[in-house]
Amino acid sequence: MAIRPSLEFTVSHHHHNLLSLFLARPHPALFSSHLLSVSQSSRPLVRRIASSATPVPHRHTTSHRPPRPLNPFPETLAQKICKSIRRPGAASKARIYSDVNVIRPKDYWDYESLTVQWGEQDDYEVVRKVGRGKYSEVFEGVHCTDNEKCVIKILKPVKKKKIKREIKILQNLCGGPNIVKLLDIVRDQQSKTPSLIFEYVNNTDFKVLYPTLSDYDIRYYIYELLKALDYCHSQGIMHRDVKPHNVMIDHEQRKLRLIDWGLAEFYHPEKEYNVRVASRYFKGPELLVDLQDYDYSLDLWSLGCMFAGMIFRKEPFFYGHDNYDQLVKIAKVLGTDELNAYLHKYRIELDPHLAALVGRHSRKPWTKFINVDNQHLSVPEAIDFVDKLLRYDHQERPTAKEAMENHLKEYCFCPSNQPREEEVTVYQTELDIHTRPILTSIRSEMQKAAELAPSRSEF
Predict the structure, then answer these.
(1) What is the mean pLDDT of the chain?
(2) Distance of alpha carbon 70 from the chain centroid
């Protein structure tokens, strides 16, 4: 993979002179205020235009003073970093379920050819807003006929291809263990905005729930999440966004559902995927060093980050300020010797600026994270499991199936184990389920959301 080339501009002689005149003697207040209004992402563009223009003497003055320095915003190290270089000859392939989509017929994974069967939007009413994300607004709702609760996910304008992918994946996974059920797909007739209707889960925010969980609770829910991951992987699908926000837990019913399949993708061996997936704190090293032929094992890294946060009571466990700093935070725990071995194995060359940013660090023992507040959770079996999940080399991580069958026999829940009564916590939700708020239509919620554009291409 080549280094991303810098942007080039062709400027006519006439416009070059006009630009040079402007840049040679800018009005200080005007120019500085203009630069201050430029977004962070546009500043490199402004700098390149400025540096490409050759100053010419002002026609109304005989002064030949050199132009003032034009770079009030020094380039940061992060802005200098380019994509990593991957040399040929070290391809990566999933250790399990690698040929699922090779064997299955094309219509199983060819989501672009999906024909969506639309339900009736007016069959559902909105109760209250429960969340929002980059690509959607999420509401609690009810079915008008039987008053059955549901979750309504109103999608923001995105490419038709992405919406079809999410729908196709949800349809393929329907009925799988601990996979959220897609009940219906509806669309507003005027704006063409689609909404996905899901089963309702009486979720408790993880920031409230996790601090109350016992050792046994954590074992139980991690095992339930592994069931969902093994099932989706066995169906040839990577989730690519595993994190606490996407794991709904009804603690009273001890029910877990893996949700938000908007970034999920079908796995094909040797295919190169976009590394701009997963949330920063849960991104695997493969994403941070631009290894594009990643696989299901990405989800196991994200699970490891989530699990480490639970047993060490440190959320998030790796707290990077940006994607580059995220790799630094990982290196400060796992060390740089193993990182360099990983890069060497897959023939990856980091940009020198990123390599300098990462620096050199020794591996930190997991026992350093144990304290009086988490020692009842950070038992040896739990630490051993974290150590197996949080490996630089994605091929060294256990698969979800291996984790359930081999690595967790001494740690995670299995039907033969019964918890002690004091180990099971019950969280009383604050929402009174008997209180019914005023209902609104899906269309009215669309009109309230300024982000939802009125025009959209037909499916």
Answers:
(1) 83
(2) 37
Kindly name the residue from 184, 188, 241, 293 that is annotated as catalytic: 241
> Considering only 40-54, 74-88, 211-225, 319-333, which range has the smallest mean pLDDT?
40-54
User: Which tokens hold the place of 138?
Assistant: 């999420």
Distance CA 273, CA 277 (A): 9
* The one-letter amino acid at 213: L
Q: Do 311 and 382 touch, CB atoms closer than 8 A? A: yes
What does the pLDDT look like over 237-252, one tens digit per residue?
Answer: 999 999 999 999 999 9
Q: Please give the Cα distance from 162 to 449 (Å, whole number).
A: 21
Structural domains of the chain, ranges and CATH numbers in brackets: 13-58 (no CATH), 85-100+203-423 (1.10.510.10), 108-201+432-448 (3.30.200.20)
Mean pLDDT, range 375-380, rounded to an integer: 96
C-beta pairs of 120-123 under 8 Å, 24+ apart in sequence? 120/186, 121/186, 121/187, 121/188, 121/189, 121/195, 121/442, 121/443, 122/441, 123/184, 123/186
Query: Torsion over CA of 209, 214, 217 and 221, rounded to 10 degrees?
Result: 60
User: Is 241 noted as a catalytic residue in this protein?
Assistant: yes
Paired with 194 in beta bridges are 187
Listed residue (105, 237, 119, 248) closest to 172, CA to CA? 237
Query: pLDDT band at residue 445, thresholds of 50, 70 and 90?
Result: confident
Q: Is 153 annotated as a binding residue?
A: yes
